[in-house]
Amino acid sequence: MKNLLKLNSLIFTIALSTVACAQIPTGYYDDAEGLEGFQLKTKLHNIIKNFDAQSYNALRDLYASNNAKNGFRDKYYEMDNTILDIYSENPAGPDPYNFNANESMGSGANEGDAMNREHLIPQSYFSEGLPMRADAFHVWPTDSKVNGWRGNYAFGEIINPNNAAPCNSGATNLPCKSKNGTLKGKFVGNNSITVMEPIDEFKGDVARAFFYFATCYENRMSNFYSSSGGSEVKAMFDGSNNKVFNETFLQMLAQWHIMDPVSQRERDINDLIYYEHQDNRNPYIDHPEFVQQIWDINMDTNDFNYQERKDISVYNTTNNTVVVKLENDAKSIENISVFDMTGKLIQTQKNTSNQKEVKVRINQKGIYIIKTEGKGLEVNKKIVIK
């Protein structure tokens, strides 16, 4: 993505809402202005590191909060206010099961029996220490069975995903999948490594949680690596405080970050955690372009694999106009966002009149990601403005 065209902000032709969708406190990132590379990352570390650490048990209350911005509850797909679990949410249809926000944490013999707390960065990597163990930016409510299948394995894209059968009780029949399509199998980047692959709608969410962790705990990352007991989790990292990730995993995270841009769910979680829980933010939700500014990742956008979702179609009508068309009447288009190839949010538009076809005008030439969100919808498509 080096030497990409720098894109200017633009107002949509229909109803515009400002690109500052999250409630970023005034001046929060002022000290980071003008920096890049690992200097920027260290400055962000200094901004977010001194947060109001909460207990592990406090996470239960956070997940159950009735705050309108509680993105840990489903206000985006079925909109039924159940727990939004990345391992069971099915954006293409009915969820296989749901968890009530107030039910107790536990473990179960089968999918759907119980929910617990999933550490996206496994606890073994930091010896279950606090505040990492209770940091809400990377500890999410999920199905306990799939969480157990994941264990200490890295995240990654698996070999032969189309051959995945439903996971057996121990998820040893690789490649296999959970009821919502979360995959477990051998990593495409190294077939000696077993990984878990979340569904497309949550890949960017996971990537930005990792970038947050690498930044918030920058000064501890090398110690975590040296003291970690598991080779599975170490597969993601390189043992440094600056780069943090090995090149293969970094490339994958950056690809997930670009292919699945920031969603309203993430913005809501960012505000919820800042204003109601621990008083810090994930910079990569507020400013997704920081990923490229820090790690300077060189990727060929032609290699990106985009979602195969039939709920909408996206096509160019002229050189500067794109049409987003609803193809599934059971769903609705509520918001359309345009991101450039650094991950930066360029434009956002509300479909307040509930149109089934929404025209989006983009004045600058370039490659963009169109994110369409609405009832039952979170679809990302790549478009080219020539």
Would you write up a description of this structure?
By secondary structure, the protein is of the alpha+beta class. It has a domain at 35-303. The protein has helices spanning 37-48, 58-64, 144-150, 203-216, 221-227, 231-234, 247-259, 264-277, 283-286, 290-295, and strands spanning 115-119, 139-143, 154-155, 165-166, 176-177, 183-187, 190-197, 312-316, 321-326, 335-339, 345-350, 357-361, 366-374, 377-385. It has a 5-stranded mixed sheet with strand order 3-7-6-5-4. Strands 11-10-13-14 form a 4-stranded antiparallel sheet, with no helix packed on it. Strands 8-9-12 form a 3-stranded antiparallel sheet, with no helix packed on it. The longest helix has 14 residues, at 203-216. The radius of gyration is 20 Å and the shape is globular. Residues 1-21 have low confidence and may be disordered.
| Class based on secondary structure composition and strand pairing | alpha+beta
Radius of gyration, in Å, reads: 20 Å
List how many beta strands DSSP finds. Answer: 14
Number of helices: 10
The oligomerization state is single chain
- Helices and strands, in order, run as HHEEHEEEEEHHHHHHHEEEEEEE
